[in-house]
Amino acid sequence: MSEARIHVEVTYALPDKQRLIGLDVPEGTTMLEAARLSGIEAQFADLELDKSSMGIFGKVEANPAARVLKAGERVEIYRPLKADPKLNRKKRAEKARS
Length: 98
Known about the structure:
InterPro entries: Mopterin_synth/thiamin_S_b, RnfH, RnfH_sf. By secondary structure, the protein is α+β, with helices and mostly antiparallel strands. It has one domain (5-97): Phosphatidylinositol 3-kinase Catalytic Subunit, Chain A, domain 1 (Ubiquitin-like (UB roll), Roll). Helix content is 21%, strand content 33%. The chain contains 2 helices and 5 strands. The chain has a 5-stranded mixed β-sheet, covered by helices on one side. The model has no long low-confidence stretch (mean pLDDT 91).
């Protein structure tokens, strides 16, 4: 008897390059495992899955290595922020006041 499989997606995006990979994984696969199985890390030179933040449909997951996926979910791999959004808003507000 073969093991049950589910369909999930893994996605990562840079300003000039994006990938969305659909794959079938065994039930019980975690977010991190699915990202590795997708092969997406090999498509982006600076992507390090073990150090990357991940989420499901825009909601950050604290522990991708433990979060088991459900059928149809999309693992999103997030880039590190180059600038703090709060600091940027504060700078824009100060500039608008002056």
